[in-house]
Amino acid sequence: MKPRYQATLLVLLSLFTFINLVPILWGLLISIKQPADAFSIPPTLIFEPTLLFHWEVWVERGFFSFLINSLIVAGGTICISVPLGTLAAYGLARTKTKHASTLLFSLLAIRMLPQILLAIPFFVMARYLSLIDTYLMMILAMVAINQPFTIWLMRSFFVDVPVELDEAAMIDGCNRWQAFWHVVLPTVRPGLAVTSLFSMLLAYNEFLFALILTGSRTKTLPVAIAEYGGEDINYWSISAAGAIGIMLPPVIFTILVQRHLIRGLTFGAVKG
Amino acid sequence: MWLFMAPSVLVIALVLFYPFFSAVYYSFFNYYLGSQAITFAGLDNYTNLLSEERFWITLGNTFFIVGASVALQLVLGLALALALYACTRGVRLISLLNFLPHVVTPVVGGIFLKWMFVGRWGLIDATLIGFNIFPPDWLGDPGWAKFTVIMADTWKFMPFLMLVLYAGLQAFDTALLEAARIDGASPWQLLWYIILPMMKPLILFVVAIRTMDAFRFFDLIYVLTNGGPGTATETITLYTYQIGFRLLEVGRASALGVLTLIVVAIMVAALIWFMQRRGREAF
After folding, report:
1. Are residues A142 and A185 located together in one domain of the fold?
2. B230 Cβ contact list (under 8 Å, min separation 6)
3. Which of B9, B33, B62, B14 is CA-nearest to residue B254?
4. Mean pLDDT rounded to a whole number for chain A
């Protein structure tokens, strides 16, 4: 294609990308500006940056402990969801019966479930067992949301491994379990990492369940930042600093799994 | 083989099916959290909801917001996917950057967007006022609030469509495109007669996924408008949240959830039917 055409296209795309990212950049600017600069009209671009608010929100306002809560929930979810999902995915990838595909599609149908419909019984259970504001309930809820997706994603990695590998291992004297554990599993290690990262992102970003199942002791980051909101102008700098910090792990995540984004997306990893 | 699946099936039964069926069970009862009295209500919860104006308003809002934003996302996402496909340099970086709004924690994204749209101090208002243009109340006026929520949803989900459609384009057989080009087809003809028909299954697939997800749409609206002003941007999920977790009417909220599920199931079934019918026509 003509170089001029290419150049125009590139400029247009860059312009669109910039406009698309304006909300994030604006948030970043608010978080490093003194309030006096942040609210001058028209918005100024020349100012002295400060990291004061980042320090204040993470250290003085306890966002660091909410980060720990978020990590505990995400870690717990991975520890339960990924091993179980991996086992099931291997089973499903190596079974060719009709039942297996029925099972797979019913897992996909679970995607239709409105999450709020699951949130209600989880809330009732948590109240009934007085497990509100515990990590356990939140982790179980995340596993519930996560499990169908984990199975589908892991299965797609197992399907890429030729069956001959299992068969060869079994001819050499392995039983099914040994073939899985010593031969097949090591070959899907990247898949395990990708699946774990997606599970982590899902648990980390979750808001609805966190809103109803966590309390002052186990509050996760999205709930904490939502409490500051964006309304009260006096808190803008603080909550902007919090928002930017919360955004970093998902950004790192995207860079890490960029090659596998499509696979994860179509199986429903990232949700609204 | 079944031994591999057993633990997972057990956990799914415990954390997915058990809660699901208990929600369906609650929906037939007058059940308020906090009070001991639980009485059987039959279909009362359902009939009450169906005869209620607010149910239809929130259902209408959901359809309107979903319909408008999915259409907008599809057009933008497709345009961007095509642009990326035609572009030869920097594609990876551009798609990665455009993808960011989709992975940012939804609540955080909502707050970022609020700082764009919020009255007077938001970036949009501040800029417009700087040019002496008096802006509308993006979040407080019922009509504009709907517009803002649609823009927010588009901002968040356009990257998803962009990436999936771009992947679809890359899987294309380029020989067909080359042949058409040699035969003298204009770019528009290429798009309309070759690219779009070939992409149709994929487009229907992403639309189906987005429709399912849209009925879960919660975080962004919760932060941006919380359904307001009045019920102008209240979707069915937000309404369920109000009933279930503000008023603690568990029975009624469950019934609303089940109704939502039925609506989603009908829409997905319609889409699948549509896909299969179209599929047969093509052969």
Report:
1. yes
2. B142
3. B33
4. 84
* Structural class in CATH, domain B43-282: mainly alpha
Q: Is residue A129 part of a domain?
A: yes
A188 lies in which domain range? 57-266
Assess if residue A272 is contained within a domain: no
- CA atoms of B78 and A111, how far apart (whole Å): 24
Q: Say which residues have a Cβ less than 8 Å from residue B149's Cβ, sequence separation at least 6.
A: B65, B220, B221, B224, B225, B233
CB pairs under 8 A between A and B: 275
Same-domain pairing of A79 and A16 = no
A31 and A64, same structural domain? no
Q: Give residues 237 to 266 of A whose Cβ lies within 8 Å of B.
A: 239-240, 243, 246-247, 250-251, 253-255, 258, 261-262, 265-266
The structure's pTM equals: 0.86
CB A198 within 8 A of CB A153: yes
Helices (H), A160-235: 163-171, 176-178, 185-187, 189-205, 208-213, 221-228
Same domain, yes or no: A68 and A193: yes
What confidence tens digit (pLDDT) does each residue in A217-261 have? 888 999 988 887 666 666 788 888 888 889 998 888 888 887 777
- Complex ipTM, two decimals? 0.85
Nearest to B258 among A43, A95, A117 (CB): A117
| A108 shares a domain with A26 | no
**Rounded (10°) CA dihedral B81, B82, B84, B88:** 160
Same domain, A140 and A100: yes
